[in-house]
Specification:
alpha/beta; Spore Coat Polysaccharide Biosynthesis Protein SpsA, Chain A; nine-stranded mixed sheet; 337 residues; two-stranded antiparallel ribbon; 2 domains; globular
Length: 337
């Protein structure tokens, strides 16, 4: 089994960055732009982000998009173009972008999305900041921002609300998700759909970011979201920030694969007792029977996950059953009439 990274920086690949020499704003919020292939009019995207007044823009550039980086860097000196290695997966790209961000908040966007409601970067930061009274009540023991990740409402090309509110269902250690269109402010979501959201950088890095060894974006997001809730963080939606999609909204691939095995061992199998978590040996026979590994491979993977859980045992605030109970208490959002 590939070792689970124990620190955020341990998982970062080498890369090259170009530009980003000028600061555009002083809002506390930067944009992290992920690029889907085949999206034209790249200058227009950066012009929109410039109008929004982000501190900086970090653009993750794969090989086909690199041809115009030099010209764009000259035209938009507030954009830092990160030339990513071939084969870098979704979560690795966000981790890499977060390492380049100097603002306390960063907004993960895709190049086929547009901010249509929410104001500029300064207004968004203001909405997510705690008041002085709230900070005093917290005794200075939390971030100045409300949560780990705030998820905007996503509208499709017909300006219809897209189902992006994720609720987990855990039954006998099997996991699936229910997806709803958000109907009110502040509802919790298991993870940010398609990675889209405004992240507290300090919390994100403290959580370990996305697991780079999970290749499927669905299980990568599931792992991130479950770990966030297991460790006491909050992910919720806001109706005050709305994003429209100019292309096809991707369909998630929830196929059971090796990413699921890793997700299961890190999030579903551990139990929480006496203010800490552990991965009990009794989980191994069932894991062996369902993993598809031979006994030696399954044991290596299980034992590595068990060491990782032990190293982080004090960070757990609940286990998967308790996360599921939380959503049952909240209740599923009502269906649209």
């Amino acid at each position: 089994m590939n070792t689970i990274p124990s620190t955020f920086n341990q998982a970062l690949p080498s890369y090259t960055a170009v530009g980003g020499t000028e600061r555009l704003g002083f809002t506390g919020l930067s944009a992290l732009l992920l690029n889907r292939r085949g999206i034209p009019f790249r200058q227009g995207i950066f012009q929109e982000l410039e109008k929004a007044g982000f501190d900086y823009v970090i653009s993750l550039e794969s090989a086909p998009e690199r041809y115009d980086v030099e010209d764009l860097s000259s035209r938009f000196p507030f954009v830092r173009f990160v030339l990513i290695p071939a084969g870098l997966n979704f979560g690795e790209q966000i981790n890499l972008g977060a390492s380049e961000v100097s603002s306390p908040l960063f907004f993960v966007l895709w190049n086929d999305l547009k901010i249509i409601t929410g104001g500029g970067a300064d207004r968004i930061t203001e909405r997510l900041s705690l008041s002085l009274d709230e900070l005093k009540k917290a005794g200075g023991k939390i971030s100045q921002f409300r949560r780990l990740c705030t998820v905007p409402w996503l509208l499709n090309s017909r300006f219809e609300t897209h189902p992006t509110l994720i609720a987990p269902v855990v039954y006998r250690r099997n996991v699936r998700t229910l997806v709803f269109a958000p109907r009110q402010e502040g509802l919790p979501s298991l993870y940010p759909f398609d990675g889209l959201g405004i992240y507290d950088r300090e919390r994100f890095i403290g959580l370990g970011g996305f697991d780079p060894l999970i290749r499927n974006p669905y299980w990568q997001l599931m792992d991130f979201g479950f770990r966030a809730h297991l460790w006491g963080e909050e992910i919720s939606v806001t109706q005050h920030i709305k994003i429209s999609s100019e292309g096809l909204i991707p369909v998630e691939d929830s196929t059971i694969d090796e990413g699921y095995r890793r997700f299961y061992l890190k999030n579903i199998a551990p139990v929480f007792r006496e203010d800490q978590a552990h991965l009990p040996w009794r989980r191994f026979p069932s894991y062996l029977a369902n993993s598809g590994w031979d006994i030696f491979g399954a044991w290596e993977e299980f034992n590595e996950a068990r060491r990782w859980v032990k190293d982080n045992r004090k960070r757990w605030k609940r286990d998967a059953r308790m996360v599921n109970d939380f959503w049952e208490d909240v209740g599923a959002p009502p269906e649209e009439d």
